[in-house]
Predict the 3D structure of the following.
Amino acid sequence: IDLYLVGVGTVGNELLSILGESNQDQICLKGVATSKKMLLSESCFDPNKIGNKLKESGDKFDLDEFLDNTGEQKGNKVFVDCTASTAVSQKYTAILDRGFSIVTANKIANTLDYGFYQSLRENASKNGVSFFYEANVGAGLPVISTMQNLLSTGDKIISIEGVFSGTLSYLFNTLTAKMNFSELVNNAKSNGFTEPDPRQDLNGLDVARKLLILARETGAELELEDIIVESLLPTGSESIDSVDGFLKHLGQFDGEMRVKVKEAEAQNKRFRFIGKYEDENASVSLQKIGREHPFYELQGSDNIIAFRTRRYPNQPLVIKGAGAGAAVTAAGVLGDIQQCLVSN
Ligand SMILES: NC(=O)c1ccc[n+]([C@@H]2O[C@H](COP(=O)([O-])OP(=O)(O)OC[C@H]3O[C@@H](n4cnc5c(N)ncnc54)[C@H](OP(=O)(O)O)[C@@H]3O)[C@@H](O)[C@H]2O)c1
């Protein structure tokens, strides 16, 4: 495989480390880029050295130029997207048309309008190349591949329910009635468990995107706007200029949250931020659940996804584990790259 990697941040860097450490003699790294710089070669780069080399040298990044200079060779070319960029995602159909397979950690392409979503699959099929995105949901957890296996072997998905955000999982697995929610969010932010601006976690959009990807996998022609999203942001949060200002604003609602959590504790219940798809309805909301629920014992920042299907009607098929982090996500991406070796 000739590999072209765009995005060398948390996930991309880790992918380079794993490629460098493990003996991937069938994978030849020929191009690497960030939003600023790019490097291309006719021969294989050393993944251990390329990060520094890119910083020190490298040309100014331009995606069209990057693609134009990948050579005319036929065979297994794989474009790996480890950015969160919409601009890169919008190029996928053209990239597939140029004979690349695509492996992506980036959720954007799969959550643009349904027409684009379909054209990705059509273009991959027409060009005899692959499109893999296991790390879109649950990082390295085998969520997408499990669904695809269930569906391709004739199972029918009845419902999908999950805690899809490591950050929101952590917040509600940790929160007690003795804590101030705003302080918990602030501490999580200081420890790097949230986005730099925690509003991006609390608005529920990331969870909605993941749910959309899973719902579409079942064949549902849903759009992001069709998902009912309960944002955890109090009114007025979005217009506040600074993150500190937002956290102060959030503090005004600590009392309200304490009352809710105290009430839940008295009923032996816990809050979880859950995405659910069933009967063509998709929603994302904060829910109070009891001991009987498979998400009650969730710990740390784990993700959990429960599929009820025709074959698993009563006891759902459950996938649980770390749903974020460089190592697991990069491993998910590498798994997809290896799939390209098998598929193409
Ligand atoms: N981190 C996780 O645990 C995790 C888990 C699952 C999925 N993901 C997904 O994986 C992707 C990468 O996440 P990350 O945490 O590695 O992000 P990150 O640390 O912010 O790194 C992003 C990388 O993408 C590059 N980039 C941004 N815009 C670009 C553009 N328009 N063209 C070319 N390169 C561009 C950045 O370049 P500069 O360095 O020049 O800014 C940087 O190298 C995201 O889509 C994320 O949602 C992450």
Residues 2-140+327-343 form a domain with the Rossmann fold fold (CATH 3.40.50.720). The chain has two domains: 2-140+327-343, 144-322.
